[in-house]
Amino acid sequence: MKEFKNTNAADPYRNFSVYGSYSKWENNELIRICGSENEFSPFIRRVHQTFRAHVSSKAFPCIGAKAALNGNCYRFGFYEQMNSEKSTKGLAFDLWSFVQEQAHFETNFSTFIAVFEKPEIKDEIFWEEILWRQLENLNKLDKKHYKWDKSVSSNPEDPHFSFSFAENAFFIVGLNPVSSRFSRRFPWATLVFNPQNQFQLLRRENKFERMQQTIRARDLKLQGSLNPNLSDFGDKSDARQYSGRAVEKNWKCPFHNKI
For residue 7, what are the CA distances in angstroms to 86, 93, 94, 97? Predict the structure, then answer.
């Protein structure tokens, strides 16, 4: 994989780079690729190591996440306050950088992890609210430069919905300290951005269903039950799965598309 540096003059978020923390794991150290030149604090390095330990644990069910970690094809960003103006700008810069770099990974398992120090998550309803608010705030920035990815729906009630940023569709996995799903339980508010094009490629190669069955079997072993929100893409909206909460049958996604 070629070394990536976000020096693209056409980057619409380049003015936000001072708030970014786009980084990678290299030689057993968390290294900034672009964004702010400030050194990572011991606390941020501990958060990153905690995430690696979470995914690396034997019980963790998602083999795709494990593959991204083992192949070092993930990127990491850390932000102070979820939904603050600075954090949203930093996340926009970092996620745009990830979209540009993704083509260089040469793998079906790359992902971007965004961890927020604050706020403290007290319950799953609160978590769901701020998760969708953060995606909506990202969308407000995105609409100034990009359209929604044409391969997916922008309507969160549509079975073909996926969140879009920089005209790239993502399946979002939210983690938080009070999640009812063990695999989604993490000490800090976290958003994992998984590119949907990887899943489509796996489907074309007839590999997705087998991977999905393996993940669900591992999750069943860990939890003792399957996530009631699970569905195949195109059956029900993936929006029901983003927060990890067991949403009601009549649940309405709080996201309002601004594009």
Answer: 21, 12, 13, 10
Regarding pTM above 0.85, the answer is: yes
Quick one: tokens of 249?
Answer: 């049958």
Please report where in the chains the tokens 């391969």 appear, as a residue.
Answer: 151
* Distance separating alpha carbons of residues 192 and 190, to the nearest angstrom: 7
Which of 122 and 7 is assigned the larger pLDDT?
A: 122
What backbone phi and psi angles, to 5 degrees, belong to 74?
Answer: -125, 155
State how far the Cα of 61 lies from the Cα of 67, in Å rounded to an integer.
12
In angstroms, the CA 77 to CA 138 distance is 15
How far is residue 122 from each of residues 128, 177, 178, 189, 190, measured CA to CA in Å?
Answer: 11, 8, 7, 11, 14
Helix, strand, coil % (nearest 5) of the chain?
40, 20, 45
